[in-house]
Sequence to fold (247 residues):
Amino acid sequence: MPSAGVTLAPTDSVVVLTGAGVSAESGLRTFRDGGGLWHDHRVEAVASPEGFAADPALVWRFYGERRAEAAAARPNPGHHALAALAVDLGPARFLLATQNVDGLHEAAGSREVAHLHGELFVTRCSDPDCPAAPFRDERSDFPSPLPRCPCGALLRPHVVWFGEAPLGFQPVKRRVQSCDVLVVVGSSGTVFPAAGLVREITLRRQWGERARSLYVGLEAPANAADFDALCLGPSGETLPGLFEVRR
Ligand code: BV8
Fold:
């Protein structure tokens, strides 16, 4: 599998999908690497609706800790490189979708980020029928009693747990189905449906389209076989020089 940079023709459109690896050099833990979040926490206990129902205090401790860590983190050169590419290409030719909830893409200047798995610093009512809107929330400490919505239901983090539908997935999938280049950065390729997006490019190539895909990350992901090329290395080092935008 060749390793490659990305030369963009003047009309090429790009979709970038990021995972936890893009924030690793900002000091935030990934999920499945050594020492990752899933090594210290049972996924079903802290990232599922059933876990929240069983022990909402545990879930708020988990997300409160992550809010404190993310609040102290700063974007790295990888985040900044993607924000710069967005300005270079413009919204018609560039979409950034992320599985991350840490807010570091926005901190680097990215706008219009598609948060497939929600946002850490946003809280919402846990009652799906409640009309109250999700709201910005910097709190990282959750003593008893846990916060409640005026409707009486518990508040919850505005993140997508296992078994819940990702947010805004179809519009992102449609952009992947029409883009020229899909670049996935720092994701182990194990969580669906996000991990399946690269297969849209594979299918288009099988139908004779010229779309192409690139994985950028520390090591080959579980879905490496679906990518046209791999660019292995820390994304904070590889992203800044990766894209050549032809005029
Ligand atoms: C859904 C919450 C349906 C927010 C997360 C069996 C088979 C297939 C699928 C399933 C199955 N059983 C169940 C499913 C579905 C399930 C799933 O995929 N499970 C997997 C584990 C088998 N998916 C779901 O439940 C999804 N929902 O399917 O809904 C539906 C549809 C319609 C209507 C109703 C229902 C929901 C998935 C979202 C779950 N929420 N997190 C939070 O707490 O953050 S998942 C969690 O994993 C995060 O969101 C994270 O972003 C995501 C993916 O992880 P990665 O980002 O890839 O991170 P990871 O640690 O795994 O990898 C890091 C990578 O970085 C590594 O490869 C490493 O090499 C690299 N790296 C490290 N350092 C660097 C680096 N790269 C570059 N530079 C570095 N310096």
Summary: The chain has a mean pLDDT of 95. The first strand starts at residue 6 and ends at 8. Residues 99 and 194 are 8 Å apart (CA to CA). The first helix runs from residue 37 to 40.
